[in-house]
Design goal:
single chain, globular, four-stranded antiparallel sheet
């Protein structure tokens, strides 16, 4: 599996549904010392996952970025677009209950970019209210 570009286009976000697929995508991120991002099908819905622990030790998520991701997750939960049991970081991020694969990929790409300091995709994917 090739390392993901930064920012990663939505169509390149790995579908990590299943243990083998998840392990392959997670290991690829670890090997590349990059932030892990993937989507997983859960019944009729999708989960977006990202994990900064796979990134190089010098990779940090600053408070501004974390606050922006958390605020976006809160807006998504309040609108009913994700379930309230989603985990908005600060190191491992999950967005549970996304209705379709296209939206899951869009949110995953925005989250991935944000974890590298580019908040523009996140602001477009989840506009401030």
């Amino acid at each position: 599996m090739e390392p993901l570009p930064i920012p990663c286009p939505a169509d390149l976000i790995p579908n990590a549904t299943g243990l083998d697929e998840f392990n392959a995508a997670y290991q690829a991120a670890k090997t590349a010392r990059a932030v892990y991002v993937g989507i997983e099908r859960r019944g009729r819905q999708w989960t977006v996952k990202a994990d900064a622990l796979t990134a190089a030790p010098q990779h940090t998520v600053d408070d501004t970025t974390h606050d922006a991701i958390r605020a976006a997750a809160l807006r998504l939960a309040r609108s009913g677009e994700i379930r309230p049991n989603s985990g908005p970081g600060p190191v491992h991020y999950t967005l549970n209950g996304v209705e379709d694969e296209h939206r899951a990929r869009e949110l995953a790409a925005a989250l991935h970019a944000a974890l590298y300091g580019d908040l523009q995709l996140l602001a477009r994917a989840v506009p401030p209210s």
